[in-house]
Design brief:
The protein is α/β, with parallel strands linked by helices. It contains 19 helices and eight strands. Bound molecules: zinc ion. The site of zinc ion has 6 residues, from strand 1.
């Protein structure tokens, strides 16, 4: 799936040939680099072949007559008008998450994809209310399916996995209340793997909703021991990030790139050591940045804002996480020092317990 996006803003050098950076130029070097990924949506990254197979099995219309046609149409290959246009393309993926078994399969495949990217520690996120929309599928079915897929994948490959529950801001509040209660109840349940539900997130349409509406739910998750990350400042301005810091006191922000140029917000992120989970290609596809070359990531890293590198919705964008490392190498001249710094920051900010992050640290933090 790599390089299926037409990179109009990228230099025409072959994959893995990163001029001027001998530490990353060797083919396969970036794939083998041990990585931490904290921002990947399992309900935003369903393999096109899996969409086709589940749709065939369950008679779900996907608007395509063949697997090949679906594989072409299911991937967004060029920038869309804005974030809303991209969110509309999630519908097919959402439709096939139609049973506990389908949710388990997609979770398993997300972990497998990350492992193939060289990820040693993955935090995978999902929105129960979003997955359940329009189906007779309960929050319990969904969480049970995610845990099943995660445990099967962790048994198959040497990778540590944590789970983050998401509330989509645009959904009815009672559905988000129910999802929060289900996530907390499962976390405390003692069920196998349930303690790995370690994070809590808000996503979707930041500018349209009163932040105070979700504050009690964020506090409920925090009291249950979950770490807090908030999608903010993706295409909204820095004031929204400042509000998110005030209202939710997160230790991480999803995207947050619009802090760039606002010295006060950047200072707060640095002083509070709030990590930005940065996803360059996603930002380009949603037109949050005009080009990959114009992405503020190198400036943020140089300024001392904690940042890490992520794929967001890789199957939707036709990329993998290694692609994001190649983007950084080719567009920003990043090499192993920058990648190591970002992976160490990600590891420090993981919501998984220290004994788990310590196991994943081998190869990322030189002893
Ligand atoms: Zn995201």
């Amino acid at each position: 799936m790599r390089h299926s996006v037409s990179w109009t803003s990228r230099p025409a050098s072959p994959p893995g040939s990163v001029e001027g950076r001998p530490d990353v130029a060797e083919p396969g070097r970036l794939r083998r680099l041990p990585k931490v990924e904290l921002h990947r949506h399992l309900d935003g990254s369903v393999r096109p072949g899996t969409i086709w197979e589940i749709a065939q099995e369950h008679g779900i219309p996907v608007g395509c007559g063949s697997r090949e046609e679906l594989e072409r149409s299911a991937v967004i290959r060029a920038p869309m008008k804005n974030l809303d246009s991209v969110l509309a393309r999630f519908a097919t993926q959402q439709a096939v998450l139609c049973s506990r078994e389908a949710v388990s399969r997609v979770t398993f495949e997300n972990v497998e994809d990350a492992w193939r990217d060289g990820v040693k520690l993955l935090e995978l996120r999902f929105a129960p209310a979003y997955i359940a929309e329009g189906k007779s599928l309960s929050n319990d079915d969904i969480i049970d399916g995610v845990l099943d897929g995660m445990l099967r994948a962790m048994a198959a490959w040497p990778i540590e996995v944590g789970l983050i529950g998401i509330l989509p801001r645009s959904f009815p509040i009672e559905r988000n209340v129910q999802a929060t209660e289900a996530l907390v109840r499962w976390r405390m349940s003692g069920a196998p793997g349930a303690e790995r539900i370690c994070g809590f997130d808000l996503a979707d349409r930041e500018a349209d909703f009163d932040p105070a509406l979700f504050a009690p739910l964020v506090e409920r998750a925090r009291e249950a021991g979950m770490g807090i990350t908030i999608h903010s400042g993706e295409e909204t301005d820095a004031r929204h990030i400042a509000t998110a810091l005030d209202v939710y006191r997160p230790s991480r922000i999803g995207h947050g790139i619009r802090c760039w140029g606002d010295h006060e917000v950047m200072r707060r992120l640095i002083e509070r050591e709030v990590l930005l989970e940065v996803c360059p290609t996603s930002n380009w596809i949603t037109s949050a940045v005009p080009s990959l070359a114009a992405h503020p990531l190198p400036g943020l890293l140089r300024a001392g804002v904690p940042v890490c590198l992520n794929s967001d919705d890789p199957n939707l964008f036709g990329i993998d996480l290694v692609n994001e490392y190649e983007v950084c190498a080719q567009e920003f001249g990043f090499g192993e020092p920058e990648f190591t710094e970002m992976n160490r920051a990600a590891l420090r900010h993981s919501f998984l317990p220290p004994e788990v992050t310590a196991r994943a640290a081998k190869g990322i933090v030189p002893s």
